[in-house]
Amino acid sequence: MDSADFPGTSSRDDLEYGAWVPSNSKFRPSLKQKIRSGQQHLGSLIRQLDSIFSSGVVFLRRNSTARVWSVVYFVCLHLWDLYIQMFHSPVSDDTRSGAVVSLENINNTGGV
């Protein structure tokens, strides 16, 4: 069936036809302003992170003791990560998450 089969309808009014054009609503300028504001906040965050990392690099270049301790920290961090990955508890047959089990326990004790 075509939209021409029905009198009083045009393909422009038919959403399923795909020719619908959104109207210029009053929310469009505020949406653009929110997007622009978000971009400004993101740019500010990136500049702050860049300055923090840059100052950290300068500090590590000037301080050899801090450089050694940062290497020790990263080695310990990676060893701990390997320990967690290698010696994790086996997955049980129960496929429910801990949150679901906890909620069921709360519901079971609440009805007493």
Poorly predicted regions are none
Distance between the amino and carboxyl termini: 61 Å
- Would you tell me the overall average pLDDT? 76
Largest sheet: none
Q: Approximately how much helix is present in the residues?
A: 55-70%
What's the number of helices? 3
- How many strand units? 0
Task: Tell the overall outline.
Answer: flat
Secondary structure class reads mainly alpha
Q: What letter string, H or E per element, gives the SSE order?
A: HHH
Strand content: under 5%
User: Over all CA atoms, what is the radius of gyration?
Assistant: 30 Å
Based on the model shown, name its key terms.
golgi apparatus; mainly alpha; coiled coil; 112 residues; transmembrane; transmembrane helix; Golgin candidate 2; single chain
Description:
The chain is an all-alpha fold and about 110 residues long. It is built from 3 helices and no strands. Helix 1 crosses helix 2. The longest helix is centred in the middle third of the chain and has 35 residues. The protein is flat and about 60 Å long. The chain starts with about 25 loop residues before the first helix and ends with a helix. The model has no long low-confidence stretch (mean pLDDT about 75).
